[in-house]
Amino acid sequence: MTESMTTADDRRRGRYIALEGIEGAGKSTVANHIVARLTDAGIDALGVREPGGTGAGERIRDILLDTATELGSWGEAMLFAAARAQLAAERIGPALSAGTWIVSDRSVYSSLAYQGGGRGLGIEAVRAVNEAGLCGVWPDLVIVLRVDPARGLARQEVEDRIGAEGIAFQQQVADAFDRIAAQDPDRVVNVDAMRTVGEVVDEVYGLIQQRLGSVT
């Protein structure tokens, strides 16, 4: 394939941006602002969330987040992977191929940190479980919103099954995100989320401009 053909294909493909972090980091709020900014810049942008985003995914979400649900660590990891595979096949993959930019509230990197790190299953083991189902649909840019675990949990409006694990678990997840960012600095970037929403959104949007381009 010639360089010109590669460039043309690259322009046609959308970009996949994932907002990550522990509970209460502000992912949903920042994701919504970023979708609005991209849209204002003339970019076709779509917001999605994990788990969920599809009919099957939303049903799995209810199981995963219900405080009455009892799940082993691998059962939890497999359910997240199943919901994610469906989202990639049904929505994210087709949207990227059509040139749409995806802004996701969580991604496979949540499973790497939560189940791989927090649950102790191993980051690489969880990565392997997800790879087959995603068929290459991985984020181009992962922005981890860093917040103190106690502050993050205090921000939760409704406590779910994962948030109910407490501060020690959230700290393990935060530590896992730090390890992942250190191992893959070209893709994963940390942002201080202990500031105002406006300041965080400005930095995130600036990183998108810097790392992915094509944003005015």
Give an account of the 3D structure:
Residues 1-8 have low confidence and may be disordered. α2 (27-40) crosses α9, α4 (73-97) crosses α6 and α5 (108-118) packs antiparallel against α6 (123-134). The chain has 216 residues and is an alpha/beta fold. The chain has helices spanning 3-12, 27-40, 55-65, 73-97, 108-118, 123-134, 149-155, 167-183, 197-212; strands at 16-20, 45-49, 101-105, 141-146, 188-192. Strands 2-3-1-4-5 form a five-stranded parallel sheet, with helices on both faces. Helices cover 57% and strands 12% of the residues.
The H/E string reads HEHEHHEHHEHHEH
Structural class: alpha/beta
Helix share bin? 55-70%
Mean pLDDT: 92
**Care to count the β-strands?**
5
Classify the oligomer. Answer: single chain
Q: Order of strands side by side in the largest beta sheet? A: 2-3-1-4-5
Let me know the largest β-sheet. Answer: 5 strands, parallel
Strand content: 5-15%
Work out the helix count. Answer: 9
User: What is the end-to-end distance?
Assistant: 29 Å
Radius of gyration: 17 Å
Low-confidence stretches: 1-8
Query: How would you sum up the global shape?
Result: globular
